[in-house]
Amino acid sequence: MSEVTITRAVRMPDQFRIARFLSNPKLGPRLLFFSGGSALNDVSRCLKRYTHNSIHLVTPFDSGGSSQGLRLAFNMPAIGDLRSRLMALADETVLGQPDVFRLFTHRFSKESGQEELAGDLEAMIAGIHPLVAVVEQPMRTLIQNQLRTFQEGCPPTFDLRGASIGNLILAGGYLNQNKQLEPIIFLVAKLVGVLGHVKAVSDDNLHLAAKLATGDIVVGQHLLTGKEQAPLTSPIEEIFLNRSLQTREPAVSVFPERNTALVQSADLICYSPGSLYTSLIASLLPRGVGRAVASRTVPKVYVPSLGHDPEAPGMTLEDRVQVLLAYLRKDAGSDCPVERLLNFVVTDQGTEEDDIAAVEQLGITVLRLDLISSKSDPYYDPVPLCEALVSLT
């Protein structure tokens, strides 16, 4: 098999390609996203209109939020971001499984007592809770089995308040599948009719750690984001994978072969918006990611986050691009040409001319488009961003 490179002119947005994909999303392009967090979820929901073939490689290294309790209770990878991306891509039409979707997106009340919530969980396992009773067989039995396994393995001190039912089902499935993520992600994708592909970027049960400019080591994603804890007072110098939350134990993770195959099938590779280090760079840390990206000749696009990122204070657009390239080259090789790793930066019209010029000096094309929904609270409008990405395929 040989690969042929074809060059074509692109009109942004390309109305012909957009109309074609809207008319038949089942034949839409294979856009591959490296990401974590929730920053891409609204875009993912919108993307279902254009393609049912998008690929999402999500980090399982978080140590805060909805995943924290489960990671501590079961010594397992983080599943919160995987669950939220699965739900973002779920078929929410009558052709999908709306009853399963409602169950997976339900959270226990934060105000209820533990005994009351334990009773709700018992009712779900028995199949008599209203959210479970309406689910058709055999899906209902599958869900009951995962919840039962979760309950049996759950420590008595586990706090059910605010717990996501989808996370509990995924945790039970992880235990049922000999502590493997991939089988339960596949099952949940089928249960909710995911219109795309969602995979963990790594199967390994690891944590994020960072070396700061001061030389200090900070272990745990929840301590790095500046959201659950106070922002770091020193810039991040290096981020790496670590075995535990207790001590500095650097670890190596290997990019699974199934993910390498997905990269090789992609029509476009996107480095997604989100926290620079704990969302984007974290998804590039497994060994093999950089080489897989460099070997695939398709458009490679970086969509930088809007607004203030507590992980990257004072960093310019060029600074963030250089960090992205540096981590890709750790695996692809220090001499890997820029064009094999990154071709476009898609950003809003408000981006400063000096920032654009600095990035373009690296040989990267900056596409400055009207992408922001609100100037007071800037975030990407999913429609023009999706249309920009599908236009580049």
TrEMBL record:
Pfam families on file: CofD (PF01933)
Output the superkingdom of the source species: Bacteria
Q: Name one GO molecular function term.
A: LPPG:FO 2-phospho-L-lactate transferase activity
Q: Which SUPFAM superfamilies match?
A: CofD-like (SSF142338)
Matching PANTHER family = MATERNAL EFFECT EMBRYO ARREST 18
By what name is this protein known? GAK system CofD-like protein
Source organism (scientific name): Roseibium alexandrii (strain DSM 17067 / NCIMB 14079 / DFL-11)
Q: What is the lineage of its organism?
A: Bacteria, Pseudomonadati, Pseudomonadota, Alphaproteobacteria, Hyphomicrobiales
